[in-house]
Amino acid sequence: MPLPTLVATLLSMRGTSQQALVDKVFTALSADAQPVCGVSDRAFAKARSHLHVPAVTALNDDLLARAETAGLLPRWQGLRLVAADASVLMPAIRRCPRTRGLAQADQRLFALYLPGAELTLHAEVCSATESERSMLANALDKLGPSDVLLLDRGYPAAWLVNLLQERGIRFIMRCDTSSGGWTALRRFIQGSAHEARITLGAPQPQDAADWQCSPQAPTVRVVRQIAPNGQTRVLMTNLTAAQAPAHCFGGLYHHRWRIEEAFKRLKHRLHLEAVSGLSQHALMIDVAAKILADNLAALLARAAHEAAGPPPNRPCNLAYTLTVLQRITPRLLAFAGEIGTLIESALAAIARTIKRRKPHRSAPRQHDKVKPHPSAAYKG
Questions:
Q1: C-beta of residue 195 within 8 angstroms of C-beta of residue 246
Q2: pLDDT tens-digit map of 55-109
């Protein structure tokens, strides 16, 4: 199976059977669009098993580097906002005595996400027993000196604050439900001040030794912010008042929610958990390929939006863009037909799906809902 066709198949994967997917790709490549059975599903599975996971992730790194060079990654006061979070990953698997290295049924997907550009900077599959703080600490090398981390309530820890400050990484993390043993933070939450500088408790000696950070108690700036629904939030940061005044934190923290939308899109639009194989290697390949497909769709939607020229609060429909990308990817990678005409028609179709994005829109989670789980259909 040629490498471009293999990559096109992986980027087009949407929770269907392997044979139907491969046939769709070869049909898209045919001149008359007649049904074609190019290779078997076993040939696809064998070709996928020889694909190196870092090679697929390197494609995503190269895409982001090109987007950075082209100036497609928006900035906030010269800084790049990066949201970090992890999501439950439960691939649809079944027992198979012939498959080596079966994937685990319960894992975690950790990601670094660029909210303004709607691009995933880094994604990694981790064990369900690993903490989200350690996932973040292991991914700090992916961040640059101009990045600002946006973190939710599960991350505040004295050792992590020390580690971020020693590496020169700016951060904003919510801490109103993580007071723990930090007396100074509890006093600020109970008080009425809008912002203050407080000293947290010292990290545990074992944590400081494990992560090779300072054992001293860190000093941070805390800001009180009132959400549109009246909820009070307390945000911890190492940004100065000159870099980020107190009134900016509501909008900055709201950007973090885009990573939750990205996880939802990956799971429900790209069917991330409906894996193409039963092994851990197949899962890793699927994750890397679908992250790349989602990033390509985001850039395609941005190009269509700029060509159409609507206001910034009326972006193109990213879910529809994913569908368009799925249809044109085989011909693009195989250089089949008039590539320029194909891209122009795709951009024109995407530009017709402009929607209005309401500011300060919120949708609280329904905690009583059962997590949907994909069925374990036949996979190679």
A1: yes
A2: 999 999 999 999 999 988 999 988 999 999 999 999 887 777 777 788 888 899 9
311: helix, strand or coil: coil
- pLDDT tens per residue across span 9-49: 888 877 766 677 677 776 766 666 666 666 777 887 888 88
What radius of gyration do the chain's Cα atoms show? 23
CA distance 58 to 64: 10
Q: What is the dihedral of CA 183, 148, 356, 340, to 10 degrees?
A: -160
Which residues have C-beta within 8 Å of that of residue 249, sequence separation ≥ 6?
A: 172, 223, 225, 235, 237
The two most distant CA atoms of the chain are separated, in Å, by 72
pLDDT band at residue 362 using 50, 70 and 90 as cut-offs? low
The pTM score is: 0.86
Give the CA dihedral 277, 280, 284, 290, nearest 10 degrees: 30
Report how far residue 87's alpha carbon sits from residue 234's, in angstroms, rounded to the nearest whole number. 23
Q: Which amino acid is at 145?
A: P
Residue 153 has pLDDT above 70, yes or no: yes
Helices 318-334, 280-308: axis angle to 10 degrees equals: 110
Do strands 219-226 and 232-237 pair parallel, antiparallel, or not at all (unpaired)?
antiparallel
Report CA torsion sign: 47, 53, 55, 56: positive
Q: Which of 51, 158, 120 is nearest to 260 (CA)?
A: 120
**What is the overall mean pLDDT for the chain?**
85
List phi, psi (to 5°) of 8.
-65, -40
- CA gap 244, 246 in Å, rounded: 6
Q: Structure tokens of 54?
A: 């870092």
Tell me the H-state helices in 12-71: 18-29, 41-49, 53-69
pLDDT tens digits along 232-255: 889 999 999 888 898 888 888 889
What local confidence, expressed as pLDDT, does residue 380 receive? 39
